[in-house]
Design goal:
Distance between the termini of chain B: 58 Å
Shape of chain A: globular
Number of domains of chain A: 2
CATH topology of the largest domain in chain A: D-Maltodextrin-Binding Protein, domain 2
CATH class of chain B: Mainly Alpha
Structural class of chain B: mainly alpha
Number of domains of chain B: 1
Strand content of chain A: 15-25%
Number of strands of chain B: 2
Strand order of the largest sheet of chain B: 1-2
Largest interface: A-B, 42 and 29 residues
Oligomer: heterodimer
Strand content of chain B: under 5%
Radius of gyration of chain A: 25 Å
Radius of gyration of chain B: 25 Å
CATH class of the largest domain in chain A: Alpha Beta
């Protein structure tokens, strides 16, 4: 008896478990795909025919010159509401993902053959995403756009083999961020404009090791963002490059490139004007030290001012990245575009949405960065504030990363070599020779 | 007709009675969540991905390129160092904690709860806290060392040796409470009579620890060792959030190497091959452990 009761109990529990699974499965079936931040749905249009999904990054919204700027849920809602008014037959489901999770989420989804119809993509990932087949070519659609209105460098960052894969929305660049108060105390009323002379002079004057204060922040951590640091900007301003013009060989072992990396490493290891521990520092770590007024200068984007606002007495200044007498400044182009999933079921609808969000009126309010269209500048006094002006100025000197099927494999090699040079494991020339030979091997494959 | 129904009912009864039916839910879940990913991973480790074509069978090519990569062997060495370091430290630390909280002291439950905290703190939160405490220029640890003892800033996370030590200490701190709980359970199951008998025979505290306590905890200790080695070999989150495998690959354990291969270099096939190697190592280790455990149980049984 007790045995049969036990069995009944067991069967019951299996039944309950199965029911649970069924309910869970059904709930999962009907629910939306995984979402990090869900934005409330736009007003439901009367006729809903096709639903497209739109993945974007979430960051802080901000009011600049009376406008809400940034990819905040409110902003997304405003855009989507307008869109569904214009196209009632298309429903847009937006998913906003924090920056730290964006890359993994994209790659996991695209590798599984799923992912959103339309997505927001930064320049850094463009080569990998395009050559991995995640992005649909926009050749059939692009004639509907006035491509002359876009910054050419932004377009080239999302073009491969003569085809366009994304509509650039905004351009981000690094800038020289400096502490006005520390510079004033050291006797300077402007930031250094040239390396090596001025950068070294300013850095020496700003360094007070006894109180843990250093002139300039040097990044040595081997992450992708190391590509945006001073060293590569200085390679460019010295006339160097990563790849030859035909993209067939690596030229980072040129005397110009080696000289730039040498100076970058010397600031830390020889002149000791940068805080020790660089191998563990990325841009964020330096930003913390800059806010704590422990470094006088470093390289960061305009978006850093959101953090500076938390310390009102911080007197920060922004200027062009120091260059040479030949080339005033240079910087690696950053920024974002909107792209279409190569597996989308609704390319026409996706394109309509892409075209809509790339209209100048949205671009002008899109973020803390510079719009990728010239005509966006005429909207709403976007360039009134100084940080935008200087970023726009800096973007004229911006170069995108090489667009090559092997860029994804090249980046870890470059950052590893540079990190080893900063850490003193290899001399700068040895590091550049090693990077060059490794990349040339990759290019031969 | 009736006979047919009766026969049918009997067959249903047989099925209901069989063990297999009870295993179906678990088996289905295991197949879905364990077997499928493992076999898929094995499959893509023998392929190469070509744009527009998909996965093409290439035999052992990925394994050859993996075994000829210096970084892979470096990563394997780093993983072994990290695992052995973490397990040794956390094992001793867990044993000491278990012996301490086994004593009859006031607020014993409170102590146990506090000592369990590292186990329940999410690894990313723990890693970020460590990062702040150990920041070379702004961290509390270096500040205290400098103001109290005049020690110059220690490069906890930017020097290759220190970063490994920091990783090992952080991981041990995180997993030691598991050892504490397991060993404490074993300690409390040792009959008091054994200690009394030992005392009658004139045993000192050291003798009692060596001849009564340690043999009494043997089973629990073996389990702790096995689990901690597996966790340390396969751990990713804590060390990734702490060092990202740096500086200069000094903490590039195999799981971080696999992550880099797939999510930085987009070489999912090579990453799958590396994952298979990790799976083999872990399977071998588990098999050895199970065999040893079986033998030791037989020994105890005799």
């Amino acid at each position: 008896m007790s045995q049969s009761k036990g069995r009944r109990e067991y069967l019951k529990s299996i039944g309950a478990f199965a029911a649970g699974l069924a309910i869970g499965g059904l709930a999962g079936w009907f629910s939306k795909p995984q979402e990090i931040v869900e934005v409330s749905k736009p007003e439901t249009p009367t006729i809903v025919k096709k639903k497209i999904t739109w993945w974007t990054v979430v960051n802080e919204g901000k009011i600049v010159s009376g406008q809400l700027v940034g990819n905040s849920p409110d902003f997304e809602n405003a855009v989507i509401n307008e869109f569904t008014k214009q196209y009632p037959e298309i429903e847009v489901e937006v998913t906003m993902i924090p920056w730290g999770e964006l890359f993994t989420k994209y790659v996991t989804a695209f590798e599984a053959g799923t992912g959103p119809d339309v997505f927001f993509i930064p320049t850094t990932w463009a080569p990998q995403f395009i050559y991995s087949g995640y992005c649909k070519s926009l050749e059939d659609f692009k004639n509907e756009l006035d491509l002359n209105d876009f910054l050419p460098s932004a377009l080239s960052a999302f073009s491969a083999e003569g085809q366009l894969y994304g509509i650039p929305l905004r351009v981000d660049t690094r800038l020289l961020n400096y502490n006005k108060r520390l510079l004033r105390e050291a006797g300077y009323d402007r930031a250094p404009a040239y390396w090596p002379d001025e950068v070294l002079e300013w850095s020496k004057a700003l360094t007070k090791e006894e109180i843990g204060q250093y002139g300039i922040g040097i990044v040595g951590k081997a992450t992708d963002s190391l590509l945006y640091e001073f060293w590569l900007c200085w390679v460019f301003t010295n006339g160097g490059a990563i790849l030859s013009k035909d993209n067939k060989e690596c030229v980072l072992n040129s005397p110009e490139a080696i000289e730039a990396l040498e100076f970058y490493c010397d600031l830390l290891n020889k002149y000791k004007v940068a805080p020790p521990g660089a191998l563990d520092y990325d841009k964020t770590a330096l930003r913390t030290m800059f806010i704590a007024e422990k470094i006088g200068m470093f390289s960061d984007g305009k978006f850093a001012i959101v953090d500076y606002a938390k310390k009102p007495d911080l007197e920060y200044g922004l200027d062009l990245i120091p260059g040479t007498k030949k080339i005033r400044s240079a910087v690696v182009l950053g920024g974002w575009a909107v792209a279409m999933n190569s597996n989308t079921r609704y390319p026409e609808e996706a394109w309509k949405f892409m075209k809509f969000v790339s209209e100048p009126r949205w671009m002008a309010t899109w973020s803390l960065s510079v719009p990728a269209r010239y005509s966006a500048a005429s909207y709403a006094g976007y360039f009134d504030d100084f940080p935008s002006k200087i970023t726009f100025e800096q973007s004229k000197y911006a170069k995108p990363l090489p667009m090559h099927p092997k860029t994804g494999k090249m980046i870890p090699v470059i950052v590893q070599g540079v990190s080893e040079a900063v850490g003193g494991k290899r001399s700068p020339s040895e590091a550049m020779e090693w990077i060059t030979s490794e990349i040339n091997e990759l290019l031969k494959e | 007709m009736n006979i047919a129904i009766l026969w049918g009912l009997r067959q249903i009864h047989k099925i209901v009675n069989s063990i297999f039916l009870y295993l179906i839910p678990t088996l289905a879940l295991m197949l879905l969540l364990v077997a499928y990913p493992v076999f898929y991973e094995l499959y893509i480790s023998f392929t190469q991905r070509y744009l527009g074509v998909g996965y093409i069978y290439v035999g052992l090519k990925n394994y050859f390129s993996l075994f000829s990569s210096n970084l892979f062997w470096h990563s394997l060495r780093i993983t072994a160092t990290y695992a052995v370091g973490s397990v040794s430290l956390s094992f001793v630390w867990g044993l000491v904690l278990a012996l301490l909280v086994n004593e009859r002291v006031k607020a014993r439950t409170l102590f146990r709860a506090i000592l369990l905290l590292p186990w329940v703190i999410p690894p990313v939160a723990a890693a970020l806290t460590f990062r702040w405490l150990l920041h070379e220029r702004l961290g509390l640890v270096n500040y205290i060392l400098m103001t109290l003892f005049g020690v110059p800033p220690v490069p906890w996370l930017s020097n290759e040796t220190f970063a490994m030590i920091t990783g090992i200490v952080a991981n041990s701190w995180k997993i030691a409470p598991f050892g504490m709980v397991m060993i404490l359970g074993a300690l409390q199951s040792i009959p008091q009579e054994l200690y009394e008998a030992a005392e009658v025979d004139g045993a000192t505290s050291i003798h009692k620890f060596w001849y009564v306590t340690l043999p009494g905890c043997r089973g629990a200790m073996l389990t702790v060792l096995l689990m901690e080695i597996i966790w340390s070999f396969c751990s990713f989150t804590l060390l990734f959030a702490l060092t990202e495998g740096g500086p200069l690959n000094a903490t590039l354990i195999l799981p971080i190497y696999i992550y880099r291969l797939s999510f930085q270099e987009f070489d999912f096939c090579l990453a799958a091959a590396a994952s298979t190697v990790l799976l083999m190592i872990m399977s071998l280790w588990t098999a050895l452990y199970l065999k040893y455990k079986e033998e030791s149980t037989e020994h105890i049984g005799r």
